[in-house]
Design a protein that fits this description.
- By secondary structure, the chain is α+β, with helices and mostly antiparallel strands.
- It has one domain.
- Helices cover about 45% and strands about 25% of the residues.
- A four-stranded antiparallel β-sheet has the order 1-2-4-3, covered by helices on one side.
- Helix 1 crosses helix 3.
- The chain is globular.
- The two termini are about 20 Å apart.
């Protein structure tokens, strides 16, 4: 599977996670130092560690045994999370997962 396919699959998983867990999904966030590039993000009031842990558990629960290698690759792509403070909450985002890879449902 190509990195673009992993990014699309990761973006879809993050979107579904947000829908299921009540977080707000951003398909077009541009964080500090990204110079206008867009990526996916999750707006939340929980700690970033809690959101990442929940997301990892969600991913592992959603894959079957045949897709465990894909899950491992997706988890590796999620390790590069960053965060910005939004005043009343936080956004956790992944600059390596571009918005164009996050297809709309």
């Amino acid at each position: 599977m190509s990195s673009t396919q992993y990014n699309k699959e990761t973006a879809d998983i993050v979107r579904n996670f947000c829908l299921d867990e009540g977080y707000e999904f951003y398909p077009d966030y541009s964080g500090r130092g990204m110079y206008g590039r867009k990526c996916i993000g999750i707006s939340h009031k929980d700690t970033t560690a809690e959101v990442i842990t929940r997301l990892a558990a969600y991913l592992l629960e959603s894959v079957n045994d045949d897709a465990i290698e894909n899950a491992a690759a997706i988890l590796r792509s999620l390790k590069d999370a960053r965060q910005d403070n939004l005043g009343l909450g936080t956004i956790t985002y992944w600059p390596n997962i571009e918005a164009e890879d996050a297809s709309e449902n």
